[in-house]
Amino acid sequence: MNEENKSLKSSLKKSNSANSYPLMENIFLLKAGKRRTQKLLPWINLSSLQGKLIWIQNFLDIQQTFSTVVKYQQKIKTNRTPFKIVVLGSDVFITEILRSYVDILSKTQKPLELIKFYILPIGKKIDIALHIASLDSQYRTLFIHSNWKNLFDEQEKFTNQEIEFIVSSMDKYIYGGKYTTLLNINEAFLTIKGEDSDSLIIQKTIPFLKSMKIGEQKDFEKQNEHVSEPPRVSLDYWVRHQKDKKEIKEKDEKKKESKKERKDKKITKHVTLEFVVATPLRTIALALKLDQNELPISGESFSLLTVYTDKKRNLSSKKETKYQRRALQISKLLAKTLDNKKGFVVNIDSIDWTGVSLITIRPQWNSQTKYFPLAVFNKV
């Protein structure tokens, strides 16, 4: 066992003492073995926030950490203040934190009173941080710019000036982020099958904060380039009725109805689905970006963007666009592969899941822990 893991085990063991408070109500969580966070290690203690630094080796370490936080809070009967948990890393690390959070906190009472998260973006994939920046301009000013990113991308050690800049930015957020915004925790249920018929079928329920995308992301980085054949998917989604909030199902039958009638119904179509984004936060599709003001977003529904081949359009001319897109506010999505030999690729908060044959998306996690409490500078 290395020294980092020993330190974690020791901290967690001490926390079982009824009269000891080793976590000091503040902890820093970093992913062990990552070059960018490893580079930051010597300077974390320069932050004026007094807290315990915990290196995370694996998912079990995160589970043990949250269990310790819960036990600690339960021992304090009065004047409980939320734990400040500072997460330093990319979307992949934040997703690991989220999985453990919903697992441990779902078993406690009033979980939102226990923890307050501070996310410091370090790494290549920071879509969750980009969403926070869209909500909070001060957060965007501190962390969403090339200077912050380049500091961790470079191999060289930090200069004294860079160290001062990093620590100052951290402290401004940790002490200035006095408000809490509650990000919806969404639910993805996946059925994954192997490459052959004898392979085991795996089912997973995954919490996520920002987006779900179907299709190869690399195909859409450049809008005008040739794209590979997209996955063939049967898509069902439910559109919430605007007047009485009822959900109505429309069967795939030949009916003559007005556009207004069709707008508020569940639509089931077999299409060649090339890209789908479903998120309660905002709709993004890499090169195909939907204006956030086009569609009202509520905490009980998704904004859905579908991109598919328009068979009615003459595609012989290269100047003709090959795609159409439509946006709807939905409360549930179900996508199923039409190819029995292989599944499709699903990207959930920057993590790829391959061989997916079925996915169901809902805008609310299925336990009492439905929100992720995040520190921001202003009321959102």
UniProtKB/TrEMBL annotation:
Per UniProt, residues of the Phosphofurin acidic cluster sorting protein 1/2 C-terminal domain are 23-221, 228-378
Query: One Pfam family name from the record?
Result: Pacs-1
The name of this protein is Phosphofurin acidic cluster sorting protein
- Record organism: Anaeramoeba ignava
- Taxonomic lineage of the native organism: Eukaryota, Metamonada, Anaeramoebidae, Anaeramoeba
